[in-house]
Each structure stands twice: as structure tokens, then as C-alpha cells.
Design brief:
Blueprint lengths: L3 E4 L2 E4 L10 H5 L2 E9 L2 E3 L1 H14 L8 H14 L5 E8 L17 E8 L2 H10 L1 E7 L14 H12 L4 E5 L4 E5 L3 E5 L5 E3 L10 H12 L4 E3 L2 E2 H5 L3 E6 L3 E8 L2 E2 L7 H13 L2 E3 L1
Parallel strand pairs: 7-8, 7-15, 11-12
Antiparallel strand pairs: 1-2, 1-6, 3-4, 3-5, 4-17, 5-6, 8-9, 9-13, 10-11, 10-14, 14-15, 15-16
Helix pairs in contact: 6-8
């Protein structure tokens, strides 16, 4: 079955869908996005994702392309047309198409909206979590407002490529003080020797992950103590466990950092318990 994309009011064959050559997302990365997981025919945490989209749009002084309720309907319809029961839906909003100029386009320029959906094999995701992933560390060379979920992801692309070339599944950004900020496409966590969860506090240096927020609730349900603070690469290497979180990774254990094993080099029990509890806590809306 061919994939279907929603582009500015129309459902189109994915292979033929396109945007204007002067769309500001293409020209300037002047846009924002969200990725929602679809699991068992339900969209996970859509309220929090759209709340974050609203914040990103506000921080960049951009308007909603359509009403929020209408966007919810488009997301569900795009998933339905692509017959996605397990997978993800991608939402992108840009400042629209206009003659190339660094300043904002004229008042009334309509934002562009693209929504796509694709299937992901849940068995492969579970196998990846059961095996765990390796990470490499890279200098954090991104702009200072990574709390806004913009489409300007070139440093993340380069970091992920470096990870792949090193045989790793993720890269962790490290700031000038030697502290881990977050992954190229995930939030970073460790578990201390006495069982405390540690993840960086959500300031301007990281994206406040939706999955991260839900996992804080899952941790409370499991009776775990959480510390929202920075941690160093050395502390992470010496931790009992480490893991990453994100919309499509949920919780995936980290088994090595820069080639050195974390704990016993196998997925940890705390990470796997959080993964199992996540879907009991997360909001689920029928797709």
C-alpha cells in the first residue's frame, strides 16, 4: 500500500508530496516539529506533544497552521490512511513560503503544515531494548535554545553519523564542563549505585522530552527517587545503569559509553522496569 502524506490541506501520495521551493523550513530551518509514537493503534501522549508544539511555535513567534482540534484530526487521519498500528507520526510546521529574506515574511503568510506516518516493527524495537545500545560522547556544539524543537538539526545529524561509524546507536552531547546534556535524538539518564535515577534538569540546554516527562510519573509509580541534575561522563561510566528515552525509543538501556561497559554491560533492571511501566502511565488516544 502506498504511503500518504498530508501537505497544506491535501492528502497526497508520499512519493509525490512536496513543498514550495521557498518554504522557510527548507531555506532557513525556520520551523518546528513533533514526533508521536503510535502503539497498538493508539497515539501516545498527544496532549503533551501538542502542548510542546504550542510552546515551540510561541517561542519562535509562529502561528498555528490550523486549529489544534483540526490538527488532532489530521494526525489521526494520516495514521489511518497509512494503516499504522505501531509506528510514528511526524508533524512539521514552518513559517510558510515567501520570497527569500531573513526577516519574517509579510503579515498573513500562511504557515506550512506537513504530517506523515510510518510503520515500525514493535518486535524489532523490543529486541533493541533487550540488547541495549552503545553510545559515544561528542562536544555539544548546538545553539543555546535546544529547548525549542526546531527542524535545525545539523549538529544532531553529524553526531548520529559519528555514532553509527563507531558502531553505536546514539551520541551524547557533552558541554564545556564535561557534563552530559542529552542525546542526539533522546534524553539521557543514569541509575546510581544506590538506585537513584538521574537526568539533567530541563533548562535551555536540553529538550524537555515528552517521554521524559511521562517517565518521571512512571518512576513515581515504581517508588524510584529521581534527581534532576547534571551528571558527568565519568559519573555515567561508573553508574549501575544508563538509558535513553524518546518518543520512538521509549526506554532503551545503554550498555557502553565510548567503548567502556556500563555496569555489567547488560541492560539494567531499572530501565527495563520503566519501559514496561511507561505504557501504563502514558496517555493513549485512538488513532
Amino acid at each position: 500500500m502506498p504511503r500518504i502524506a498530508y501537505v497544506n490541506g491535501r492528502y497526497l501520495p508520499h512519493a509525490k508530496a512536496g513543498i514550495h521551493v521557498e518554504d522557510r523550513g527548507y531555506q532557513f530551518a525556520d520551523g518546528v516539529y513533533e514526533v508521536c509514537q503510535i502503539a497498538g493503534g493508539t497515539i501516545i501522549d498527544i496532549t503533551r506533544h501538542l502542548d510542546r508544539l504550542d510552546r515551540s511555535l510561541g517561542e519562535l513567534r509562529m502561528s498555528w497552521p490550523i486549529a489544534r482540534r483540526a490538527l488532532e484530526a489530521v494526525i489521526a487521519e494520516t495514521a489511518r490512511r497509512n494503516r499504522v498500528r505501531d509506528g510514528m507520526v511526524y508533524i512539521q510546521v514552518t513559517r510558510g513560503a515567501a520570497p527569500r529574506d531573513h526577516v519574517f515574511p509579510p503579515e498573513g503568510t500562511r504557515p506550512s503544515l506537513v504530517v506523515t506516518a510510518k510503520r515500525i516493527d514493535p518486535a524489532k524495537a523490543e529486541a533493541r531494548a533487550a540488547a541495549g545500545v552503545k553510545v559515544v560522547t561528542v562536544p555539544d556544539n548546538r545553539w543555546s535554545r535546544v529547548d525549542i524543537k526546531t527542524v535545525g538539526l545539523l549538529p544532531n545529524v553529524l553526531a548520529r553519523q559519528q555514532a553509527r561509524e563507531a558502531g553505536a546507536g546514539e551520541a551524547w552531547f557533552v558541554d564545556a564542563q564535561g557534563m552530559v546534556t542529552e542525546g542526539a535524538a533522546t534524553n539521557a539518564w543514569i541509575v546510581t549505585g544506590d538506585g537513584r535515577l538521574v537526568t539533567r534538569h530541563a533548562d535551555f540546554s536540553i529538550l524537555r522530552g515528552v517521554t521524559r516527562t511521562t517517565l518521571l510519573e512512571a518512576a513515581a509509580r515504581l517508588g524510584l527517587t529521581v534527581e534532576e541534575r547534571a551528571f558527568s561522563v565519568d559519573e555515567a561510566r561508573e553508574a549501575a545503569e544508563a538509558f535513553i528515552s524518546g518518543a520512538t525509543t521509549v526506554v532503551t538501556p545503554v550498555i557502553a559509553i565510548d567503548g567502556a561497559p556500563v555496569g555489567d554491560g547488560r541492560p539494567g533492571r531499572t530501565a527495563l522496569a520503566l519501559r514496561a511501566t511507561f505504557f501504563d502511565v502514558a496517555e493513549k488516544v485512538p488513532a
